[in-house]
Design goal:
Number of helices: 4
Radius of gyration: 26 Å
Structural class: mainly alpha
Helix content: over 70%
Strand content: under 5%
Shape: rod-shaped
Number of strands: 0
Distance between the termini: 64 Å
Oligomer: single chain
Length: about 120
């Protein structure tokens, strides 16, 4: 009888340890999943804006871009959306609207390198 009790206690402690490890693992992975999901959504929104503005340029509809940008921000629950114009775009289309200016060092870095930051 004593062996059964010991075996039951060992199995119980093992199951409790496994449960605790599983909870910790799920918690850490959920955080990473949430961060990756947010990054994927932001990349998708950036690609939609880039492709949409390129289409506006090609079709000569740059005067309607503010409506397009407002709809993208509203439909995708984006809190803040702005465009950083490069030198070629500024020389071709001018300085642009308020939301088309460089705001911080990240914008400068992106324009300098052409890489996502």
């Amino acid at each position: 009888m004593r062996t059964k009790s010991r075996l039951l206690a060992i199995v119980t402690f093992m199951l409790l340890g496994l449960t605790a490890a599983t909870i910790v693992n799920i918690s850490l992975n959920f955080r990473e999943y949430s961060i990756n999901n947010a990054l994927d959504k932001s990349q998708m929104a950036a690609n939609i804006v880039k492709d949409g503005l390129t289409a506006h340029m090609v079709n000569g509809m740059m005067d309607k871009r503010e409506y397009f940008l407002n709809k993208i921000a509203a439909n995708n629950n984006i809190k803040s959306l702005w465009i950083a114009r490069g030198e070629n775009v500024i020389s071709q289309y001018g300085e642009g609207l308020y939301n088309e200016t460089i705001r911080d060092a990240i914008d400068k870095e992106v324009l300098r390198t052409g890489e996502s930051v």
